[in-house]
Amino acid sequence: MLAAVLGACAPRGDFGRPAPSVIGDRILPFAGRAFAQTRDEPASWSILTEDERELRARAYRFLMPAHEWQVSDRILADLIRHRVTPAPLRLGQRRSYWDALIFSQGVSPAPLFRRIAQDAEQDRALIPLVREVAERVLAADEARLRFLLHVQVLVESQAEQAALRVAENRCLIAWVRSEARERALRYRYALERLAIEAPQRSAIEPERALAALDATIPTLDTLPVGELGACAEAIRTPHHRLTPASAAASPRPEAPSIPARDAPPPEGVMLFKR
């Protein structure tokens, strides 16, 4: 718990990513994989690719509470993000952002309107970056699964770890997309409460920022990862005996499908040099 408190209170990095730290980069991820494994959730011990690391860093902003004054929520969210504790389908109440906003900024409405606009705009700006790295990760996952079919001597544990990593990636992308939607609803809740209490022209800026955010979030819907609810339901199913055959029989995003052995490699990917 002390590690979670220290991790949640650590300064945030640039562009919505967490600041580097031993706790956040080593201790909590290791503990999270171990705890997830005991719950029979997809937990791969394989090394992360650079894009997989970047995806997890980009996910940070969307998986943590939007306001820094949501201290208790941030501690719990960090434990959930690292999978030390099981992930609920929704963390906190929709009004939690509004409560933190009012508590931190006092009684003047102008800075409150500005903060809502800034948070919404920063989310909007990050979504294309999340989508870009998510597309690269999904493409690499497809190549990884195809590569399994061409390995001359395949250890079953290696196939299992690959399938589990693909499941982790898909569930993470579905989770980020779900939280992006929820954050927009929390901003909307705060803006409506504030406009009722202090109607003024300052509400125009956050309204425009929220409209832009609402228009950007659907660009994540085309990512082929399914919905968060299906993923959350699937992680209750034991994965410790996952094999290429069982992976092929399971739906996305929880367990990946493995192509037929005569399937060609992905376009632009060379599996072996000839």
TrEMBL record:
<protein>
    <submittedName>
        <fullName>Uncharacterized protein</fullName>
    </submittedName>
</protein>
<feature type="compositionally biased region" description="Low complexity">
    <location>
        <begin position="244"/>
        <end position="260"/>
    </location>
</feature>
<feature type="region of interest" description="Disordered">
    <location>
        <begin position="242"/>
        <end position="274"/>
    </location>
</feature>
